[in-house]
Amino acid sequence: MSTEAIGGKLLLQLGNAQFSVSTNINPHRVAAVKKALGE
User: Domain of life, per the record (predicted)?
Assistant: First the structure.
């Protein structure tokens, strides 16, 4: 998993999938998504 902050958005890359979310997202939600996707 890689992350990059771009203009108030956070780009999460998990394998071939990319997700763009607000930088004020709850970090526990990011961790839950990462766990659910098996990363």
Answer: Bacteria
Q: What is the pLDDT of residue 5?
A: 61
Q: What angle do CA 12, 19, 32 make, to 5 degrees?
A: 70
* Domain tally, the chain: 1
Q: Where are the beta strands (DSSP E) in 1-39?
A: 2-6, 9-14, 17-22
- Give pLDDT tens digits for 1-28: 666 666 678 887 877 888 888 888 888 8
* Number of DSSP helices (H) and strands (E) in the chain, helices first: 1, 3
